[in-house]
Model the fold of this input.
Amino acid sequence: MSAPHLDVEQVEAANTAFYEALEEGAFERLGELWLAPSDVGVDETYHDPADTGVISCVHPGWPVLTGRGEVLRSYALIMANTDYIQFFLTDTHVSVTGDTAVVTCTENILSGGPAPEEGDELGPLVGQLVVATNVFRRTPAGWKLWSHHGSPVLAETDEDDEEETPS
Done:
């Protein structure tokens, strides 16, 4: 087993690689970062990959997705419909216990869709705040993403502040 500080560094690197693949639209690389049946010693010829080492994902506002097919299809849809996305991670915390690691963080997301009319420019940029939990599992090929759960953070408005202020 590796030294604890080395495990934390490797998990941080795997977490960073996940967000970089999303930002770059690198679907194949993204798929390689997720846990696969072969990573946990399952021969897909004889076993249903959904039965062992199931991966899961919850995007903000989406239902739970399970299995590589559903999870990777969701990222393909996101990448196909997002011209620009950038993640600024804050409040990142890594915890490693044995062969499992949990990363919690705040995703400060800046994204843009297609321009309203034909053109080279992006549509309006939108900011979003999401808290995320990423669970990784150690494999012979390194740390792989086992589960991702993102929940939106509801931002307070100025009106909310005014209602709480006593007259």
Remarks:
- The first helix runs from residue 4 to 24.
- The two ends are 61 Å apart (CA to CA).
- The mean pLDDT is 86.
- The chain is about 30% helix and 40% strand.
